[in-house]
Design brief:
By secondary structure, the protein is of the alpha+beta class. The chain has two domains: 61-134, DNA polymerase, domain 1 (Orthogonal Bundle), CATH 1.10.150; 151-363, Ribonuclease H-like superfamily/Ribonuclease H (Nucleotidyltransferase, domain 5, 2-Layer Sandwich), CATH 3.30.420. It contains 15 helices and ten strands. The strands form three sheets. It has a six-stranded mixed sheet with strand order 3-8-7-4-5-6, sandwiched between helices. Strands 1-2 form a two-stranded antiparallel sheet. A two-stranded antiparallel sheet has the order 9-10. The longest helix has 22 residues, at 343-364. It is elongated and about 80 Å long.
């Protein structure tokens, strides 16, 4: 005999046979009060991510570098002083200090992986450091690139590094540096050994008086050029008053007309080969080279020239060589202009020296 059972259904107590009531009760219980599963839990093991990463990175480092390369890197890391390590750009500051301290505490590095135990050395940094130790010339390439960019800023028209090499190391024996002012033009003729072959100035006061006729400039500048020695390059000073000052417009016009005449008359082969013999050099760059700048203002180069003249006599290897047969004349010329501060004369010599030292000798290395 089936015993009925009472269950609350639809808001009322109703009578169900016992087997059916038992099934309904179980269903209601499971839907309202879910039991915790009795299946065994899936245990996820704890992984120290940094440890695993370090192990994998260490294995990768071994694959990236040959045994010979690893030996070279470890030799530097285990023997270089703090100062020597700082010679590598990536090891400057705290990193080099940390390497030395790690060596003191734990002994020499046994493998490249151990470098990642040093503070500040993550995987990518470690690879970069190893490459920089193996290829220190990378910094030299960057320096050459910077020098090439500097060269383009210093000299106009722009000349590439390779052209500088080709011209200045194969075909060029000398340059003439020219600096013009409102009353005079000065030039200095120097060869590749920085020997002063010629150095003088000439007056042209009448150009600033009158209507700035092109024909007058042509006659005057042609006459001055006839006195200049022949050279492979002619370097002009690139400077001038600001367009923002209207009162200086006549001076600015004079400078531009003089520069245009020099470019046209000295570029004798441009029509044939398209190569510029005449270049312009930034005035402030020369000032910075000789530490003559105070802010944006360039000061007189008289004292620098005076020192160069003295060193030519007193030193065995002077910065600039004045031939013995001309040194007396040059010193007398300098003394005669010392009270008048003839800046064009001083600047023409300094510009020639700066051109060789900045634009030429830097490309040789």
């Amino acid at each position: 005999m089936t015993v009925p059972s009472l269950l609350l259904a639809g808001g009322r107590w109703r009578c169900f046979p016992l087997p059916l009531a038992s099934s309904l009760f179980q269903a209601l219980h499971n839907s309202c009060c879910r039991k915790e599963s009795t299946a065994p839990k899936k245990i996820i093991p704890h992984i120290d991510f940094s440890d695993e990463t370090a192990k994998e990175s260490g294995k990768t480092l071994d694959k990236l570098f040959s045994s010979e390369q690893q030996a070279s890197i470890l030799h530097v890391l285990n023997t270089a002083s703090n100062k020597e390590l700082e010679a590598f750009k990536l090891l400057r500051g705290k990193k080099s200090f940390n390497i030395v301290e790690h060596r003191k505490k734990f002994g020499p590095f046994q493998n490249l992986e151990s470098l990642m135990n040093v503070p500040l050395f993550q995987y990518k940094i470690t690879i970069q450091v190893c490459n920089s130790i193996l290829n220190p010339e990378t910094g030299g390439k960057k320096k050459k690139l910077q020098e090439s960019r500097l060269l383009r800023k210093l000299i106009k028209p722009e000349i590439g590094r390779e052209r500088v090499k080709a011209f200045l190391f194969q075909a060029v024996n000398s340059i003439v540096s020219i600096v013009s002012g409102t009353r005079r033009i000065a030039w200095a003729h120097l060869d590749r050994k920085l020997a002063v072959l010629d150095w003088q100035q000439t007056e042209y006061c009448q150009l600033m008086k009158g209507s700035y006729l092109s024909s007058v400039y042509l006659e005057e500048i042609s006459s001055i050029i006839s006195k200049m020695p022949k050279a492979d390059f002619y370097v002009l000073e690139k400077a001038g008053p600001s367009f923002q000052n209207p009162s200086l417009f006549p001076v600015l016009l004079h400078f531009h007309m003089t520069e245009a005449m020099l470019y046209a008359l000295l570029n004798t082969t441009f029509a044939q080969d398209g190569h510029h013999q005449v270049l312009s050099m930034n005035r402030n760059a020369v000032g910075k080279h000789f530490e003559l700048m105070i802010g944006d203002t360039r000061t007189s180069g008289k004292e620098v020239v005076k020192q160069l003249l003295s060193e030519s006599v007193l030193k065995d290897e002077p910065r600039v060589f004045f031939p013995p047969e001309k040194i007396v004349r040059y010193r007398q010329m300098f003394s005669s202009t010392e009270h008048n501060r003839v800046e064009e004369l001083y600047d023409s010599l300094l510009q020639a020296i700066a051109f060789y030292e900045l634009a030429v000798f830097n490309t040789e290395s």
